[in-house]
Design goal:
homodimer, 172 residues, mainly alpha, Arc Repressor Mutant, subunit A, two-stranded antiparallel ribbon, DNA-binding
Chain lengths: 172, 172
DNA sequence: CCGCTACAGTTATACTATATAACTAATTTG
DNA sequence: CAAATTAGTTATATAGTATAACTGTAGCGG
């Protein structure tokens, strides 16, 4: 099964919650709360963890203004130059309609280039620009630092592998 | 550290991707794609897994029109009757401003009740209505079936415990 | 070759979740 | 008591996602 082969519903199922603030100002008193099954609910804990990781990701790339989707697109285009726009979109599970704006953004920053295919003029083949290639190098360095922090939190590469192995079962 | 104690940034860090469709219509041909580091990136795989779990959650509760946030609120109010609105919100990492609409919805369905505190008239204490109590029972049954599916996918309760243990490290 | 169908990309639109600021009313504190 | 704080609310903005409709192009069967 390919990375993009997921089921889909006609809706948005989002969000148990999102991390709250660094204590808006807080009087320091916290109610003791019974979380019941939430404490060990796969979806809830997974969501919390994912938000924490994206939080770190966002801080890592705040200066570049790079969002996870942008990162993924640059990465895939770098490693698969000439893919059709729709192929990249599908690989990442992004609807082609929504993918347009993402590519617009990257093209506007001169990181990615749309090249009309000679053999099929409907197709926009995606390539990194020279600037994009350079950007991708730095991007991967920044990303690796982020990933290293996550792996460290997890307790090392073995723990990371175990986590990946487990979560992959949920998407198969 | 309480469940609600997370860092926060002034932004949204969302989304590597979201599951794409059941093949829009598809010619069956798939480009072979090099995912590079994405295949084992903690954030990416975590996000994919979380979406898959929420997908199942959404299907489970499609009839009830219950979203994850609603579920969590009903659960917390059931197990912590009389908590202040803002305490529930903070526990779930939901901003109090956004929490208003959630409670409005649950109150409108006669599942949750706002009771003005006698000792502090600013406070809305949350309680389940009798209907809400009943609803919570069914809700938990439905939820348990969902959770069981997830645990089965993971390979059993031990795998689930291991997963929870790992992801919790990311939120600590 | 023509017409039908499928496909790639795009535009427009709507909805959900979230973030921020400002406001009201009530309470606490100096 | 006045000033600051708190709880809840309202309004508004933004990001991510979903859906439909449209344009232009390609391919196929008669």
């Amino acid at each position: 099964m390919g990375h993009g082969d997921f089921l889909q519903l006609a809706q948005n199922y989002v969000i148990f919650a999102k991390p709250s603030g660094p204590k808006p100002s807080g009087n320091g008193r916290h109610a003791i709360i019974n979380y019941s099954v939430l404490s060990e609910a796969v979806g809830y804990r997974l969501r919390r963890a994912q938000l924490a990781v994206f939080q770190d990701f966002g801080e890592s790339f705040a200066a570049e203004g790079l969002r996870p989707a942008d990162f993924s697109v640059v990465l895939l285009v770098k490693h698969n130059p000439g893919l059709k726009q729709s192929e990249v979109a599908e690989a990442l599970g992004i609807q082609r309609a929504n993918f347009v704006a993402i590519v617009d953004g990257l093209e506007g920053r001169d990181l990615v280039e749309r090249r009309k295919s000679e053999t099929d003029r409907r197709v926009q083949a995606l390539h990194l620009t020279p600037l994009g290639e350079q950007f991708a190098e730095n991007m991967l360095t920044t990303w690796q630092a982020h990933e290293d922090r996550m792996v460290e939190k997890l307790g090392g590469p073995e723990a990371r592998d175990e986590l990946i192995r487990l979560v992959n079962r949920l998407t198969e």
